[in-house]
Structure prediction request, 291 residues.
Amino acid sequence: MISRTQPKKIIEELLKEVNFGCPFPECGSPFLTIHHFDPKWSEKQHHDPDGMIALCPEHHNMADIGIYTKEQLRYFKKNPYIQDKIKVKWPWDPEKIVFRMGGSILFGTRPALTLESNKILEVKKKFIPSLNRAIFSFDMNILDKKGKFMAKMVDNYLSVPIHNLKLLRFSTKGHAFKVEHEDGSYLNLKFKRNSLEEFRKLLKCNFEDNLVFGIIEIAKKISMDSDNKIPIVTILGHFSNPNIDIHILENKINFICYFYNNEEVNLPPKVFLPSGSLRITLGKKDILKFG
Ligand SMILES: [Zn+2]
Prediction:
């Protein structure tokens, strides 16, 4: 019995084949699923990339009910709609926000991570008169190792040139996003609205019991949405420039300071209140800033 879950390598190959966007003419959506068409999964269980194609859920449904021929699907594989860049409106619109980065907890809207005055990820709250409500607006500016533009998001509009891109992936359900350059730089974001119990479990990986209690009290006051959930954006990533190489892992942040004898620093989890931040400076210049 072959698993329905496709091997990661094959998924990545199929995403790259369509330039990370649905290949159906004038679609280009980066929310992609994998469709088996030659043979169909119901006829034979297989993971042969020749008979598989990445399509958005809408065009996947169309393919499932037999709207397209095998020849048309093969044509889509060879002639993707996306030719230069992926453009998409960001799907997350949380009522409140908590960042989790290397196990650290950052409350509230803020620039979450700044590398030498370049804000890699920032979230602002903006009032939209036509909606008569505020929305969270995500901004992103990701550079590759040479300092060249890799991905940019302004007011929730993401634009990523596909040139030199190793991977761009939104999970099928849209709660995770990863963009990776061929040079190994990447940003991986995950979004989940946690119950208090789930939040407590997460905190227990990194903090002592008395601190966990305090963090939950703060979260209840300032970060609970109208369903009593705590919306958390987890940040993972790897970024570098001539001064620093930073690796944000699930429970810690590692970085190498090239400007200081290649010293390796291991940053343990901390709690940042809405006005708090941590700076690593060289002279008067900020090299790295959290929050
Ligand atoms: Zn589509």
Notes: Residues 106 and 272 are 5 Å apart (CA to CA).
